[in-house]
């Protein structure tokens, strides 16, 4: 089962709890439209290549469509549609004024030069510029796209329409990007972990953490945890995990990874596999790498009492049921990793106002929004006696539904 299928299963479960009919469920899951375009470019070799580009716009009841654009050979309409739906719910849980979108181009960037990638970005924007825009649909980076691609897209859109820094987010800091964006998802994981601990009468200080994945999300989360007294006893990357029950020195580890490209050869630690890492004795477990890591096979052996989902879709539905039964508090991905999209919203706000916030203001706004989102979801979970995941979907579906009704069907 793919991550988005699993999430749709969770989504349907929440919809059934809300007594929505199958018809309304389908209406909410199906996207409003998917634009499919042919992107034809001349390669450096002189050959002509053509790719398919997709932009799915799922629901804009609460504001302009928002979501990433990925460059990957597996991108297709179905993929794009399913992921766009997730963005609608994530934006609604975070209570930012956006709907959901997703898209991409079915190219393999590993086989393309920088010049060819630039042509693809510009051609794609030429094809979709009438359906995107700062008040219509705001793309962002996703798998294999980043600040560089967003800069080209913003430039091309501005050439075709008018100067529009707010047409995409995730831009370079020197080109209308936002202070604090790179740390935002990891910071959000730390904030939501802190809130979860508070509900158990605990705090980060003196608590043990295990983190799978030491990339953007995992390393920033680890840094904030360490800086507030938490003990990160194990982290990993694609090459494996490292463990020290006394706690790892995260600053030294970040410096080490920068030099050697991996965490596994960090001195003075024990080695642990990515599978065993999930089963270590710890208070909090943070998956921050891949989807599907918790399954019916390992969910009963997880020792942590709190799981904070930094990664998208780390928990399969049958594992989720086991966690629920075992009363493990799971902060779901659509809340725990929403810091990134919230900060993208801040970037857009600054672009629309031609104004720049400093890091302190960004952090303050991010923290407030995430704490509020956590409170709302936790309260629904307690009131309705459901998991935080079900509660998050119930909150999101309720907000999208309300906006739809207020606008008039
Ligand atoms: P990243 O590429 O910066 O880091 C990924 C980390 O996972 C790396 O340490 C990598 O070595 C490790 N990894 C890769 N394959 C692995 C494997 N097979 N086993 C164990 N570890 C493996 O990515 P990221 O931006 O930190 O994203 C991590 C997760 O968080 C993804 O699921 C992503 O979808 C999700 N996410 C990221 C953001 C964001 O703003 N970056 C926002 C929302 C969700």
Outline of this structure?
The protein is of the alpha/beta class and 409 residues long. The chain is built from 14 helices and twelve strands. The chain has helices at residues 3-17, 22-29, 77-94, 114-128, 147-160, 181-199, 216-227, 250-260, 274-277, 317-325, 333-336, 339-353, 359-384, 388-407, and strands at 33-42, 48-59, 65-71, 99-105, 137-141, 208-212, 231-237, 240-243, 270-272, 284-287, 306-308, 329-331.
List the helices and strands and how they pair.
Layout lengths: L2 H15 L4 H8 L3 E10 L5 E12 L5 E7 L5 H18 L4 E7 L8 H15 L8 E5 L5 H14 L20 H19 L8 E5 L3 H12 L3 E7 L2 E4 L6 H11 L9 E3 L1 H4 L6 E4 L18 E3 L8 H9 L3 E3 L1 H4 L2 H15 L5 H26 L3 H20 L2
Parallel strand pairs: 3-4, 3-5, 6-7, 6-10, 10-11, 11-12
Antiparallel strand pairs: 1-2, 2-4, 7-8, 8-9
Overall description:
- With 409 residues, the protein is an alpha/beta fold.
- The protein has 14 helices and twelve strands.
- The protein has helices spanning 3-17, 22-29, 77-94, 114-128, 147-160, 181-199, 216-227, 250-260, 274-277, 317-325, 333-336, 339-353, 359-384, 388-407, and strands at 33-42, 48-59, 65-71, 99-105, 137-141, 208-212, 231-237, 240-243, 270-272, 284-287, 306-308, 329-331.
- The chain has a seven-stranded mixed sheet, sandwiched between helices. Strands 1-2-4-3-5 form a five-stranded mixed sheet.
- Strand 3, helix 3 and strand 4 (99-105) form a beta-alpha-beta unit.
- Helix 1 (3-17) crosses helix 3, helix 4 (114-128) crosses helix 5 and helix 6 crosses helix 7 (216-227).
- The model has no long low-confidence stretch (mean pLDDT 96).
- The structure holds nicotinamide-adenine-dinucleotide (NAD).
